[in-house]
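Notes from hallway chat w/ T.B., transcribed later so I don't forget. T.B. wanted the structure written out for a chain they're using in a teaching module, and asked if we could keep both sequence and structure tokens in one place. Agreed to drop them here.
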Amino acid sequence: MADPSTAALRRATIVLLLAALIWGSMIPILAALAEHYDKWLLSWLRYVLGLPVLWLAVLCSVPPVAAPRPLQAGRLFRLGAAMTAFSVLYTFGVATAHPATAAIVLMCGPIWATILSRVLLRAPPPPGFYVTLVLVVCGGILVVLGTPGRTAGGLGVEGGEVLLVIAQLCWSWYSIRAQQWLADRGQMALSALSSSVASVLLGGVCLVVWMTLGLDLPTRAPTLVEGGMIVWIGVLGVAVAVLLWNTGVSLVGVPVASLFSNSAPVFAIGLGALMGFTPSWLQLAGGAVVLAGIAQLQIRQTWMARAARRAG
């Protein structure tokens, strides 16, 4: 991938931080909803509620100047399957992994994204990337270890951690292939098409779970607050966040974009503080390390883009 311009870097920073902010807000909201609603139904509803927003955005957007390549059903199915696999493996992984170890594995997402990007694209990361990678991962682990109420010394491996790694590889694969196969249709159409296939497949998964294990169907109508939270996780958590993520990936690539995802827990800390939860000093320190790592990479890339422009 060519070095992005200063304008592209600025735009990527904004959209990826907004995506991280939205995903960070999902943590306390989904935790609150999971107390009363089945997590499988919540996963499926997120996609179903987000689709109308995505397709409305497609209808209102300016179509590409050049005619896009014909859609290939096989590629669409694989993209949707990757998104569905991520959702299913993530759900099972979190449920069967040690909570603290699972959180740490998720903080290592940029590592898996970097490895997969090197394998599929053969593209080297930008200068300063590995310094940021170390800072972001270490800062994220500090955030996890500093979570109030976490059992002291409570680390272990219970099997689900492997599923979480595979889930992150599925998401990174989707992010890379979606840009290769659908970017000529624009980021809105790319997000809408892949999410539509994923919603159908995830609906099938929910049907299988309902027929085999059973689902905890709601016994009452959601309250006004719960309804707002459900709309929030669908419209923002899927439609807006996926669109922002794909846009950021198109500008700076998956490895760099994945670094921003580690700032989601930092935003979750801030939202939790607004809701009355006091963060620990270790969480604050870890959040500062994560943001400092991202900032140093962005500053370095901005300087390089300006230097290249002056040289040209």
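Follow-up for T.B.: The chain has a mean pLDDT of 83. Might be a good example for the class.
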